């Protein structure tokens, strides 16, 4: 499998609107989001070293679909993320101990009949777990403006670990040799066993009638201010879920804590767990700003805390060395 290495001659241009530095920002033409990709070995894979990484098969990936609900599982996770102030052990999702909120397994719903093997195994999905999974790298996707103020990312072959063609703007920043390597020769070596974690901030604007729609497979959970807003759990064909922020803000007690004009969080947790398809489509009019994963910032310290948000008619280009772009296989 082809893996790009870090090169000082490789450049990712983070374009910031000069007008945004001086006055009101121009409307973004694209929104780039960077997420964490963790690689898993298929169930039954013996313990060993694969592509330089030690691992063993995980029972939640490429499991037997017989007698398993693949039409979508509601409420497989609890409606709120863990509270960083709770003192819960193993709270952080990354070894840098920055992302201190993660999914909570709902044992009342999630079980072997719905494609989940238990809380202990599920808690490894979005947590760096040596010997079980491997941090394969960081993946950047580009949502383009399809109509004024509406952004869309549509990839019907979403295989970030196998991403080798840089034609569409997606980028893979590989670490740890890019994961365990090719696992399924029957599907061209494509990797169908990974999770993807994306953290973002945004400003809630009631007058904009902001919505977020996600279509994909397999599991997808979207949290707004730490509360579940889109629930597409389970190993399933592409399903669609949507959240209208004004509707959420109008709920009794405002459980999503959405306040007009104030900053809010939107976090996406997805998993690809079974052949033979991997798709993702995001459609939104929310100008999301990526919260850079801590490991990404360590790889590319020149980015600091700059959001990967492309704006402006007049632009200031800050070039930072990163890995070359890699496009998902078609």
Tags for this model:
330 residues; disordered C terminus; 13-stranded antiparallel beta sheet; two-stranded antiparallel sheet
Give a description of the structure.
The structure is a single chain. The chain has helices at 18-22, 119-122, 245-249, 294-299, and strands spanning 11-17, 30-40, 48-50, 53-55, 133-147, 150-155, 171-174, 194-203, 211-217, 220-224, 227-232, 239-244, 263-272, 279-284, 289-290, 309-310, 315-321. A hairpin with a 2-residue loop joins strand 5 (133-147) and strand 6. Strands 2, 5, 6, 7, 8, 9, 10, 11, 12, 13, 14, 15 and 16 form a 13-stranded antiparallel beta sheet that branches. It has a two-stranded antiparallel sheet with strand order 1-17. It is globular, with a radius of gyration of 19 Å. The two termini are 16 Å apart. The chain is mainly beta and 330 residues long. The model is unreliable at 1-24 and 302-330 (pLDDT under 50). 6% of the residues lie in helices and 33% in strands.
């Amino acid at each position: 499998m082809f893996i790009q290495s870090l090169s000082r001659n490789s450049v990712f241009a983070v374009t910031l609107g000069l007008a945004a530095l001086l006055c009101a920002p121009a409307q973004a033409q694209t929104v780039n989001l960077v997420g964490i990709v963790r690689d898993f070995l298929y169930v039954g894979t013996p313990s060993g070293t694969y592509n330089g990484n030690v691992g063993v098969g995980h029972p939640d990936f490429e499991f037997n679909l017989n007698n398993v609900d693949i039409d979508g599982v509601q409420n497989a996770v609890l409606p709120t993320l863990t509270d960083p102030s709770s003192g819960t052990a193993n709270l952080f999702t990354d070894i840098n101990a920055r992302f201190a909120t993660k999914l909570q397994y709902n044992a009342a719903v999630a079980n072997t009949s719905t494609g989940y093997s238990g809380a202990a195994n599920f808690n490894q999905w979005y947590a760096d777990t040596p010997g079980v999974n491997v941090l394969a790298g960081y993946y950047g996707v580009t949502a383009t403006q399809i109509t004024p103020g509406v952004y869309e990312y549509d990839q019907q072959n979403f295989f970030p670990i196998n991403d080798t063609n840089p034609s569409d703007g997606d980028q893979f920043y590989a670490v740890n040799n890019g994961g365990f390597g090719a696992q399924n020769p029957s599907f061209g070596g494509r990797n169908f066993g990974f999770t993807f974690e994306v953290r973002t901030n945004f400003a809630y604007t009631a007058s904009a009638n902001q919505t977020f729609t996600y279509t994909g497979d397999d599991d997808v959970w979207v949290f707004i201010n730490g509360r579940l807003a889109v629930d597409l759990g389970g190993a399933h064909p592409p399903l669609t879920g949507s959240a209208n922020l004004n509707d959420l803000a109008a709920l009794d007690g405002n459980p999503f804590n959405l306040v007009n004009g104030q900053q809010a969080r939107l976090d996406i947790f997805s998993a690809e767990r079974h052949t033979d398809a991997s798709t993702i489509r995001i459609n939104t009019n929310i100008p999301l700003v990526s919260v850079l994963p801590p490991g990404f910032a360590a790889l590319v310290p020149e980015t600091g805390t700059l959001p990967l948000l492309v704006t402006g008619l007049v632009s200031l280009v800050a070039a930072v060395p990163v890995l070359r772009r890699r496009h998902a296989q078609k």
